[in-house]
C-alpha cells in the first residue's frame, strides 16, 4: 500500500514539474535557459530534472510532448459536447487557438528553431488536420457540407494552422492566434457550406 502511495505522489509530482516547466517555457521560451536556470526557476535540483529527462534537449522535447498531450485533451473535451460538424470544426479550431494563447512569441520561435520540439508540433498539426478532415467528411455525409475533397480542405486547414502557429499570420494580418483560428473556422465552414 505504501508503494502505491509513493507512485501516486511521484506521478503527481512529475506532472506538477512538467506543468511548471511548460509554464516557464510558454512564457519565456527555452533556448536561453540552462539546466541550472530551469532548476532554480522550478525550485528543484538538477537531479530532479534528470528524473524527467537525461538532458536539456530531451527535457524540452518531453515538455513539448506533455504540452501538446494536455492541449489535445483539452481541445477534445471542448469539442465532446458539441453537436454537428460545423459547430465541431468551429469549436475545435477555436480550442486549438485557445490552447496556444499562453505561448509567447519567444516560445514559438524556440520551438521552430529546435528540431525535436518542432517535430512534435508538426506531428500534432498533422493529427489535427486528420481530425478536421474527419469532421469535414462527417459533414459531407450528413449533407451539412457540399461534396468537397475532405483531404484537400484538411490540408488547407493544416497549412493555415502551421502559419498561425509560426506567427506568420499574426505578422501579416495582426490577428492573434485565437482570432486567426476563429477566422479559419468561419472561412473553412462557410466555404464548404451545403
From TrEMBL:
<dbReference type="InterPro" id="IPR009057">
    <property type="entry name" value="Homeodomain-like_sf"/>
</dbReference>
<dbReference type="InterPro" id="IPR036271">
    <property type="entry name" value="Tet_transcr_reg_TetR-rel_C_sf"/>
</dbReference>
<keyword id="KW-0804">Transcription</keyword>
<protein>
    <submittedName>
        <fullName>TetR/AcrR family transcriptional regulator</fullName>
    </submittedName>
</protein>
<feature type="domain" description="HTH tetR-type">
    <location>
        <begin position="11"/>
        <end position="71"/>
    </location>
</feature>
<dbReference type="InterPro" id="IPR050109">
    <property type="entry name" value="HTH-type_TetR-like_transc_reg"/>
</dbReference>
<dbReference type="Pfam" id="PF00440">
    <property type="entry name" value="TetR_N"/>
</dbReference>
<keyword id="KW-0238">DNA-binding</keyword>
<keyword id="KW-0805">Transcription regulation</keyword>
<dbReference type="InterPro" id="IPR001647">
    <property type="entry name" value="HTH_TetR"/>
</dbReference>
<feature type="DNA-binding region" description="H-T-H motif">
    <location>
        <begin position="34"/>
        <end position="53"/>
    </location>
</feature>
